[in-house]
Amino acid sequence: GSNGRKMAMRNHIRSMFKSCGCPALFMTLNPADIHSPLMQVLAGINPEIIGRMTAFERAKVVADNPDAAAKFFDLVITAFRDYILRANRPGGGLFGDCFAHFGTVE
């Protein structure tokens, strides 16, 4: 992103530190699209042949289908937020109550 966008994100996360305190947990998520059968299905590959594909063939499917790769990324990150973190939901998630989170995509 632009320098202005980076500054805006830095200011946003700093304001979250001020209002919520320092984070108790920090992680970087990197969904492995090349190794995911779900990614291959989203790209239209027959599930019966996925197990027989080489790593190169799976990587080519990802490279040839950027729309499916973006959908896969969004699906995995949203599922993590909604079902693992359970942000702002009663009972909390896997790591306890999550009342604030910050995410960005490079």
Summarize model confidence as the mean pLDDT: 92
The number of distinct helices, counting runs of at least 4 residues, comes to 5
Terminal Cα separation, in Å?
Answer: 8 Å
Low-confidence stretches: none
What's the structural domain tally? 1
- Tell me, what's the shape? flat
Structural class: mainly alpha
The assembly state of the depicted protein chains is: single chain
Order of helices and strands: HHHHH
Number of strands: 0
Task: Write down the Rg.
Answer: 18 Å
Strand content: under 5%
Percent helix, as a range, is 40-55%
Query: What does the main sheet amount to?
Result: none
Characterize the structure shown.
- This protein has 106 residues and is mainly alpha-helical.
- It has one domain (24-106).
- It is 55% helix and 0% strand.
- It has five helices and no strands.
- The longest helix is centred in the last third of the chain and has 20 residues, at 66-85.
- The chain starts with a helix and ends in a 21-residue tail after the last helix.
- The model has no long low-confidence stretch (mean pLDDT 92).
- This is Helitron helicase-like domain-containing protein.
